[in-house]
Specification:
Elements: H1 21-35, E1 41-46, H2 52-65, E2 69-74, H3 85-96, H4 100-106, H5 135-152, E3 155-160, H6 167-176, E4 185-192, H7 201-207, E5 212-215, H8 222-233, H9 240-250, H10 254-267, H11 277-280, H12 286-296, H13 300-312, E6 316-317, H14 318-325, H15 329-339, E7 345-347, H16 349-352, E8 359-362, H17 365-373, H18 377-395, H19 400-408, H20 416-431, H21 435-447, H22 452-466, H23 471-484, H24 488-504, H25 509-523, H26 528-546, H27 553-566, H28 572-588, H29 593-601, H30 613-625, H31 631-645, H32 648-665, H33 668-687, H34 695-710, H35 713-720, H36 726-740, H37 744-760, H38 772-781, H39 785-802, H40 805-818, H41 822-836, H42 842-858, H43 862-879, H44 882-894, H45 912-922, H46 927-934, H47 938-952, H48 960-965
Parallel strand pairs: 1-4, 1-5, 2-3, 3-4
Antiparallel strand pairs: 6-8, 7-8
Helix pairs in contact: 1-2, 5-6, 6-7, 8-9, 8-10, 12-17, 13-14, 13-15, 13-17, 14-15, 18-19, 19-20, 20-21, 21-22, 22-23, 23-24, 24-25, 24-26, 25-26, 26-27, 26-28, 27-28, 28-29, 28-30, 29-30, 30-31, 30-32, 31-32, 32-33, 32-34, 33-34, 33-45, 34-35, 34-36, 35-36, 36-37, 37-38, 38-39, 38-40, 39-40, ...
């Protein structure tokens, strides 16, 4: 067996790498690991000038020598609002030179969504002209573009000045980091430790990600500093006193040492003890002081040219800098020499190769920052406005993002053209899934200010952009727009948006009042069919807003007859209102709620979207609670639509409701998988700096209940520990306490508090919030059997009124637990089993049979007991309910039977994740397609399949379907 080839030879020693042996070795290992398919990440953290960029250059060189595809990006201060600016620098080269066949392979599967972010080919429309994609679709598409590219050759992503990275690119890095270990992708980034990372939570989250190996280059020691100076001065060695003075003045910072050496060269100073005083007064602000000294020696034109370069930012065309400084091209070249080119200003490669205009940038951000800071604030603002005009004149409005970046720093001038351009750049940011960056441009457009007729549309765009980031700010913009709106129809549309915002985050009395006023205004308006449909949509939104609110319940009850009349029409608004009324009726337990939900979903009038997902999800939830057999297929379709759209909100909604369906059916592995997918969709918001919605507690409740039934109490505790409303999380927490064996009084208190919270918002239906069961059992155990029986009788009464089998069966089991004699208990349990045998609620049926088997054994009917318990064991085992399975095994042993052991192999041994992968593979999906659907890497799918084959005792994919059938 041949040994693995060693790493390629290291490049020749570089002064910039003095005392950087450890860092170089880590970077060597990082590059090598990417080639082996074990991606890693390195973060170089340190003060400005400490040598991070030199180490990045080393990493790039090592990557190229090793045959790794190197993709680089450098964030800049001017471009922090360019949505996906850093990602575009990294990934656009993959597509730019790719022939059509290679481009198609790179964009296969979810990667196609990356085209909404990256620069289009000449024949493709700009992003703002395409349909907007969801934030998750953008992140996932960009990830899969990188994954597809890495299959052909390993990738090394190199990002300098991460502290200036735009937020969407940071979100993508946060999305990439947890997946790196399974990819042929390495990431090396540099961030300043003196840029207050803590002030930007998203940057702090990325910089502290556990996937990063953090390297903190130390200042050079005195010996290395003297060696550095000797090489930089290109003369004999420096005397010890002079070297010591240089080291003390710069604290061993390589950039400061380089600038100091340059100043010594320019002035032809001897490097002896007699001249050490020159450097003593520089101290920690050496670059600024050196730049200031150098600037003081410049003529007026060169000073203006230096300032123009600082304002224009990186890669500024020489012609633009000359025009901004008010000088000609020839004078600009002379100014460039006077400034100290090339030691101060770097020429871009484009001009040298004859590819476009000569582009310039300062060699280090610290130098640019020092020049920029020396410009008076008022002059800077005026220069930025002039720069915006220059860029626009040169590009013919073809670089709107850079123009807008200058406008962000410019003096407002009530310029309608500037407002239009800022709105256009904001629209592009929204189209690529970066609403937070859109909000920056829209707020600046408001400051311009816009012409009065554009103010309301601009406020609406700003509200739409901020609604996932800061609901209070979005509501404020909507209320301002509501106040300025000119007519009832426009005000009604704005009020509907206000209501939707309240529905997803936190209902408010103000939102309800706004909706009521809008409805009242529309009732007085003769607006024809559109206005009538809008009235019904408003009414539906008002109901959605009220569902989780204690206030206004009486007023809502008074309005319900009128709302029911409004729904007796055609159109999307009426169907949305049907969905809302159906959920309201289900909350109170009206048995006709399911019919209303079916009508709401009929005709295909509610196309899945961000604006209809609440109605669709709630109507489907009603059908699940009613145990409608067609609900599952509808939920599958909604989940598929959510995945295609890339909307995290839609995906979280669909996955959560579908998890509830699996839970009802006793398919706990599927329930856990869907609940985790829903939680992951909400979690991506958290990990990528966006805001979660009210869906968080809903999906946590579903996942917590599933984990309790599967016996994973520790994980259930972690899931349910998050803050959330008592009517959503209180009942699962009470069941968790019960499963842990907590004191009955504590269980009862938790359950009763959940019940009070549920009833306060009108929830009576036991199919919706199951708090009476744990409350009654705990009260009974605590000696308060009378109160427990009252709750059990009420539970059965409400369950029979609703009519679905599952809550009726559960209520009968509860009454059996409280029955004073064995005969009564057996009869109640027989009835429970009979009811549940006509239901899809397999786990409830298994639990009822388990209770019946135990009761029969206690009544002396051992043979019948064993028959019932065996049926219970089979069902509990198939459901994956470990605690119930073990309980039934114990009961069977007590009844004289020898129950079979738990499955260590076969379908029952598969975890929820393994089962999901196995089902998809059995249905014919490729590893890549499975990875796309489950948001994992192909390597993860391979690992799952190897475990699945071992547990099922098979060796080929073609055997999966038969093995899963058992």
């Amino acid at each position: 067996m041949s040994a693995e080839p060693g790493p390629p030879p290291a490049p020749a020693p570089d002064a910039a790498l003095l005392e950087r042996g450890h860092e170089s070795a880590v970077l060597d290992a990082t590059v090598a690991a990417a080639g082996r398919g074990a991606g890693t990440a390195v973060l170089l953290e340190g003060v400005a000038g400490i040598g991070k960029s030199a180490l990045l250059r080393y990493a790039r060189d090592r990557g190229r020598v090793a045959g790794v595809r190197v993709l680089t990006a450098r964030a800049t201060e001017l471009e922090t609002s360019f949505a996906f600016g850093v990602v575009r620098q990294l990934l656009e080269p993959l597509l730019a030179a790719a022939p059509p066949e290679r481009r198609a392979a790179l964009l296969a599967g979810p990667a196609l969504a990356a085209t909404a972010v990256l620069a289009p080919l000449p024949e493709e429309p700009e992003a703002a002209a395409r349909p907007a994609i969801g934030d998750f679709a953008a992140l996932n598409g960009l990830l899969w573009l990188a994954v597809n590219a890495a299959e052909e050759e390993p990738l090394l992503l190199v990002v300098d000045d991460l502290h200036w990275c735009d937020p969407p690119s940071l979100r993508w890095l946060a999305f990439l980091l947890p997946r790196l270990a399974e990819l042929r992708i390495a990431l090396v980034a540099a961030v300043r430790s003196d840029e207050a990372v803590e002030a930007r939570p998203l940057l702090n989250q990325v910089a502290t990600d556990p996937a990063f190996t953090v390297l903190r280059p130390r200042p050079l020691g005195r010996g290395a500093a003297a060696e550095f100076l000797t090489r930089a001065l290109e003369r004999g060695g420096v005397e010890p006193d002079f070297g010591r003075a240089c080291h003390d003045a710069t604290a061993g910072n390589p950039l400061l040492l380089r600038e100091l050496a340059r100043a010594v060269r320019e002035q032809d100073l001897p490097t002896d003890a007699a001249h050490a005083g020159y450097v003593v007064d520089l101290g920690p602000h050496a670059v600024a002081r050196l730049v200031e000294r150098r600037r003081d020696r410049l003529g007026p034109r060169a000073r203006r040219f230096a300032a123009a370069l600082a304002v224009l930012g990186d890669d500024a065309p020489l012609a633009d800098a000359a025009a901004l400084a008010g000088i000609g091209p020839g004078t600009a070249l002379r100014c460039l020499d006077e400034i100290g080119h090339p030691g101060t200003v770097h020429d871009g490669e484009g001009s040298a190769a004859g590819r476009g205009p000569r582009r310039l940038r300062y060699v280090h951000p610290l130098i640019r920052a020092a020049v920029y800071a020396s410009i008076p604030a008022a002059d800077r603002a005026l220069l930025h406005r002039r720069a915006a005009r220059l860029v626009e004149a040169r590009t013919g409005d073809g670089d709107p993002a850079r123009i807008a970046a200058h406008l962000l720093h410019a003096v407002p001038a009530a310029d309608p053209h500037a407002v239009a351009l800022l709105r256009r750049v904001a629209a592009r940011s929204v189209a690529v899934g970066a609403p937070a960056e859109a909000a920056v441009f829209l707020r600046r457009a408001l400051e311009e200010p816009p012409p009065e007729p554009e103010r309301v549309p601009l406020l609406l765009e700003l509200a739409e952009a901020t609604i996932t980031q800061d609901i209070a700010a979005a509501a404020g913009h909507l209320r301002t727009a509501l106040r300025l709106a000119s007519g009832p129809v426009e005000r009604a549309r704005i009020a509907a948006l206000l209501g939707e915002a309240a529905t997803y985050v936190q209902p408010t009395e103000q939102a309800m009042a706004d909706l009521e006023h809008a409805v009242a205004a529309l009732e007085r308006e003769e607006g024809g069919v559109p206005a009538e449909d809008l009235r019904r949509r408003l009414a539906a939104t008002m109901l959605f807003t009220a569902f989780a609110s204690r206030s206004g319940r009486g007023e809502l009850a008074r309005r319900m007859p009128r709302l029911r009349e409004l729904a007796e029409h055609d159109g999307p608004g009426a169907r949305m209102l049907d969905c809302a009324i159906a959920y309201q009726d289900a909350m109170t337990g009206r048995p006709d709620a399911a019919d209303r939900a079916r009508r709401g979903l009929s005709g295909g009038l509610l196309e899945p979207s961000e604006h209809t997902v609440t109605a669709l999800a709630l109507a489907l939830a009603v059908l699940l609670l009613a145990e409608d057999p067609g609900a599952a297929a509808r939920l599958d379709a909604l989940t598929a639509d959510a995945r295609r759209s890339g909307s995290l909100r839609m995906l979280a909604s669909a996955s959560t409701v579908r998890a509830r369906g699996w839970l009802l059916a006793g398919q706990l592995a599927e329930a856990e998988a869907d609940a985790r997918e829903g939680l992951a969709a909400a979690g991506i918001y958290e990990r990528t700096g966006l805001r979660t919605t009210v869906l968080g507690p809903v999906v946590r409740a579903a996942l917590g209940e599933t984990l309790i039934l599967r016996g994973d109490l520790d994980e259930a505790g972690r899931v349910l520990a998050a803050a959330g409303p008592a009517h959503l999380l209180g009942a699962p927490r009470a069941r968790l306490r019960q499963a842990r064996g907590d004191a009955p009084a504590l269980v009862a208190r938790e359950a009763l508090e959940a019940g009070s919270a549920a009833e306060a918002i009108g929830v009576l239906n036991p199919a919706m919030v199951q708090w009476r069961v744990p409350a009654a059992l705990a009260l009974h155990a605590d000696g308060r059997t009378g109160r427990a029986r009252e709750l059990a009788v009420r539970e059965l009464e409400l369950a029979r009124r609703w009519g679905a089998p599952a809550p009726v069966g559960r209520a009968l089991r509860l009454l059996a637990d409280l029955a004073p004699d064995r005969v009564g208990a057996v009869e109640l349990l027989r009835e429970s089993v009979a009811v549940l045998e006509g239901s899809a609620a397999r786990l409830d049926l298994a639990a009822a049979r388990a209770d019946l088997g135990v009761a029969l054994h206690a009544a002396g009917r051992a043979a019948e007991s064993r028959t019932v318990l065996r049926a219970a064991l089979d069902a509990a085992d198939q459901c994956g309910a470990r605690p119930l399975t073990e309980r039934v095994r114990g009961a069977l042993r007590a009844a004289g039977a020898r129950p079979r052991r738990a499955a260590l192999s076969g379908p029952g041994a598969l975890t929820p994740s393994e089962l999901r992968v196995a089902e998809l593979a059995a249905a014919g999906a490729t590893n890549r397609a499975i990875a796309h659907q489950l948001f994992v890497t192909p390597k993860t799918v391979e690992v799952h399949l190897s475990r699945i084959y071992r547990k099922l005792g098979i060796s080929a994919r073609t055997q999966l379907a038969a093995a899963l059938r058992g």
